[in-house]
Write a structure and sequence with these properties.
Layout (H helix, E strand, L loop, with lengths): L7 H9 L14 E4 L1 H11 L5 E3 L11 E5 L15 H19 L6 E3 L4 H6 L7 H9 L5 E5 L4 E4 L6 H7 L2 H17 L7 E5 L14 H17 L3 E6 L1 H9 L5 E4 L2 H12 L4 E5 L5 E4 L16 H20 L2
Parallel strand pairs: 1-3, 2-3, 4-11, 6-9, 7-8, 7-9
Antiparallel strand pairs: 5-6, 5-10, 10-11
């Protein structure tokens, strides 16, 4: 459910109220891990009519209802929309923990996350900077990468939430190679690409212009691509491509994914194309995890302004990934 005082409860209600046509692509039933009372309160306040029912693993999910697995957490009776606190931080952390446990026990196939407050999470005593790091810890995973996926563009980041001044020290051959290999594996296993076409973006303007604007392409990125190619054989890997053109080419269908060196290099073009329907996918986890590509939006929480487009896309992609993993497994 995400943060109980953010827009998570609202977009869940809007999704189940039929404001998006996600059910037409649904293969498996969907249940919410969270707080039934919060959802009922949000339903009343927003005037969104959705039947909400309690649910337990092993029970069938009512076809038209919003099924909720209630998680024990601090009381949220005094919550205020847009005002996270320790109690809301503890609650959203417990939702994540229980959802991951469901999947690891084989009682669910995928996790779709609504947005959380990283500050509130740390207020509650969790040291993780966000969802991704918490999920990695809960699943015993050492290396994960963020993919942003949309119908026209998929971007995977070598580095994520890092200051620009630190990027040059972090963009190293081993890190780039690992990102390429994990991207290739996910495109095959999760997206059904038989022979993925992966483009690697350069770090400097114009790809360094033969060293005039920097030599990281020659000394770091090219060796990383070569190392990945030696692992993958005849895989279609190319680059380093000038960043100001490669995302356009990918959006036109030339590539299945682009490896970006840092956060804004990849996310600015992605969100320009997919601000409403983009999906955040965590690569490298033993579980499937998709997420909305937006934050808690505390400024509009509880006001009836949030849209469920990204959540609908995240649910649809999680279903596709789960189906593809079944096929890939044989």
């Amino acid at each position: 459910m995400g943060c109980p005082v953010g827009i998570g409860p609202e977009i869940i209600l809007r999704l189940f109220a039929g404001e998006t046509d996600w059910r037409s692509d649904s293969v498996w039933p969907v249940a919410v891990v969270g707080n039934k009372g919060v959802l009922e309160r949000a339903s009343d306040m927003l005037g969104v009519s959705v039947p909400i029912s309690s649910w337990q693993p092993g029970e069938s999910v009512p076809p038209e209802a919003l099924a909720v697995l209630e998680v024990e957490s601090p009381t949220l009776a005094g919550l205020q929309w847009g005002h996270p606190d320790v109690a809301s931080g503890l609650a959203m952390a417990r939702y994540i923990e229980e959802a991951v446990a469901l999947i690891l026990r084989g009682q669910a196939s995928a996790l779709i996350t609504c947005p959380i407050s990283k500050f509130s999470l740390q207020q509650a005593g969790y040291s993780f900077p966000g969802h991704t790091e918490m999920l990695a810890s809960l699943t015993g995973t050492t290396k994960v990468h963020m993919m942003m996926a949309g119908p026209r563009l998929k971007v995977v980041l070598v580095t994520i939430h890092e200051a620009l001044k630190d990027i040059f020290a972090l963009v190293q051959p081993q890190a780039i190679t690992a990102c390429i290999l994990q991207t290739h594996a996910s495109l095959v296993q999760d997206f059904g690409c038989q022979n993925p076409r992966i483009a690697v973006a350069a770090l400097n303007p114009h790809g360094g212009e033969q060293g005039i604007f920097g030599d990281e392409e020659r000394h770091i990125i090219e060796p990383a691509i070569a190392a990945a190619r030696s692992e993958l054989g005849q895989a279609e890997l190319s680059g380093p491509w000038p960043p100001d053109t490669v995302f356009h080419q990918a959006s036109q269908g030339k590539f299945d994914a682009v490896i970006a060196m840092y956060h804004d290099q990849g996310l600015i073009p992605f969100k320009l194309l997919h601000f409403e329907d983009g999906v955040n996918v965590t690569l490298g986890l033993p579980i499937i995890r998709t997420s909305v590509d937006h934050g808690t939006a505390y400024d509009i929480a509880g006001k009836g302004l949030a849209r469920a487009d990204s959540l609908a896309a995240a649910v649809s992609l999680a279903q596709t990934m789960a189906a593809n993993r079944v096929k890939h497994a044989g």
